[in-house]
Design a protein that fits this description.
This protein is 69% helix and 7% strand. By secondary structure, it is α/β, with parallel strands linked by helices. Strand 4 and strand 5 (119-123) form a beta hairpin. The longest helix is centred in the last third of the chain and has 87 residues, at 221-307. This is Thioredoxin-related transmembrane protein 4.
Length: 349
C-alpha cells in the first residue's frame, strides 16, 4: 500500500513519454512520405512544341487572377483522369512566359486551348471537370473551328507576335526592378525607356542604311550618263509622235469641215434649182388661168348674147375685160412667189 502512490505518477510519466514518442514517429513517417505530385505539366518556351503531337488541353493563367484560382482544383482533377481519357494536360503562367501568351494571342484569363496533332482550337467552356470530360469523350471539339492560317501558334506571324510579347515582358520586369527594387520614380523609368527607344530606332536606321549601301551597288557615272542620253531621244521621239498625231487629227478635222461646207453648198444649189423650177411653173400657171378665164367668159358671153337684147349684150371694151382678171392673178402669183422665196431663204440660213 505504501508503494501505490509512487507508482501512479511514474506510470503517467511513462505513458506521456510513450505518447510523445509515438507522435514523433508518426510525424517523421508523414514527412518521409512524398507529397502527391501534380499531373499538370508546366509548359515553357523550351518545351511547348510537345503539344504539336498527340492530344492536349492547355490552360493559360496568372497567379493574381481570382477566376484562374477557382478553376485550379477542377483542372487538377481533370489532369488526374488524363490517363483514362488518353489526353495530356498542361498549364502556362503568362507572367513567366509572355512569349507563349503572345504565340496563342491570349487576351483574357483563364484561357483554354485544345490541341490535336498540331491543330489548335479554343475551348470556351466553364472549365469544370465534367464539362471538360464530356468535351473530350463526346469529341465536341470537332464542331469548333480550328485556328488556321496566321492565327495558328506555329505560324510565322504568331512567332513574331511571341517575340513582341517576350520583349514587352522583359521591359515590364525591368520597369519593376527600377521602381520596386531600386526605388526610382516611375517618371524616371519612363524617360529612360523613351530615350532607349529613340537610340534603338536611330541605330536600326543606321544599320538599314549600311545594308542598302552594301547590297545596292550604285551605277557608274558613264552608264548613268548613257542612260540619260538614251532616255532623251526616246522622250523627243514620243513628243514627235504626239505632235504628228495631233496634226493628223487637225487635218482630218479640216477635211471634214470642207466636206460639210461642200455638202451645204450643193444642198443650197439644189434648193435654188427647185426654186427656179417652181417659179417657172408659177409663171406658167397665171397665163393658163387667164386663158381659161377668157374662154369661160367668152362662153358665157355667147350664152348671154342669145337671150339678152343686142343693146344689153354689147360687150364692153376688150381692154377692160382682160385687164381686171389679169391684174388680180398677177398680184396673187407675185405674193406666192415672195412667200416661197422667203421660206427658202429661211431654210438656207
Amino acid at each position: 500500500m505504501a508503494g501505490g502512490p509512487c507508482c501512479g505518477p511514474l506510470l503517467t510519466a511513462l505513458l506521456a513519454a510513450w505518447l510523445m514518442a509515438a507522435a514523433a514517429t508518426e510525424g517523421q513517417e508523414q514527412a518521409a512520405l512524398p507529397a502527391e505530385q501534380s499531373r499538370v505539366q508546366p509548359m515553357t518556351a523550351s518545351n511547348w512544341t510537345l503539344v504539336m503531337e498527340g492530344e492536349w488541353m492547355l490552360k493559360f493563367y496568372a497567379p493574381w487572377c481570382p477566376s484562374c484560382q477557382q478553376t485550379d482544383s477542377e483542372w487538377e482533377t481533370f489532369a488526374k483522369n488524363g490517363e483514362t481519357l488518353q489526353i495530356s494536360v498542361g498549364k502556362i503562367d503568362v507572367i513567366q512566359e509572355p512569349g507563349l501568351s503572345g504565340r496563342f494571342f491570349v487576351t483574357t484569363l483563364p484561357a483554354f486551348f485544345h490541341a490535336k496533332d498540331g491543330i489548335f482550337r479554343r475551348y470556351r467552356g466553364p472549365g469544370i471537370f465534367e464539362d471538360l470530360q464530356n468535351y473530350i469523350l463526346e469529341k465536341k471539339w470537332q464542331s469548333v473551328e480550328p485556328l488556321t492560317g496566321w492565327k495558328s501558334p506555329a505560324s510565322l506571324t504568331m512567332s513574331g507576335m511571341a517575340g513582341l510579347f517576350s520583349i514587352s515582358g522583359k521591359i515590364w520586369h525591368l520597369h519593376n526592378y527600377f521602381t520596386v527594387t531600386l526605388g526610382i520614380p516611375a517618371w524616371c523609368s519612363y524617360v529612360f525607356f523613351v530615350i532607349a527607344t529613340l537610340v534603338f530606332g536611330l541605330f536600326m536606321g543606321l544599320i538599314l542604311v549600311i545594308i542598302s549601301e552594301c547590297f545596292c551597288v550604285p551605277l557608274p557615272r558613264n552608264l548613268s550618263e548613257h542612260s540619260e542620253q538614251d532616255q532623251r531621244p526616246k522622250e523627243t521621239h514620243g513628243t514627235e509622235q504626239l505632235q504628228e498625231a495631233e496634226e493628223e487629227k487637225d487635218d482630218s478635222n479640216e477635211e471634214e469641215n470642207k466636206d460639210s461646207l461642200v455638202d451645204d453648198e450643193e444642198e443650197k444649189e439644189d434648193f435654188g434649182d427647185e426654186d427656179e423650177a417652181e417659179e417657172e411653173e408659177e409663171e406658167d400657171s397665171p397665163v393658163g388661168g387667164v386663158d381659161e378665164e377668157r374662154s369661160n367668159a367668152s362662153d358665157q358671153g355667147l350664152l348671154k348674147g342669145d337671150n339678152v337684147p343686142k343693146e344689153e349684150a354689147e360687150p364692153e371694151e376688150p381692154g377692160d375685160v382682160l385687164e381686171k382678171p389679169h391684174s388680180d392673178d398677177t398680184g396673187v402669183a407675185e405674193d406666192s412667189l415672195r412667200q416661197r422665196k422667203s421660206q427658202h431663204a429661211n431654210k438656207g440660213s
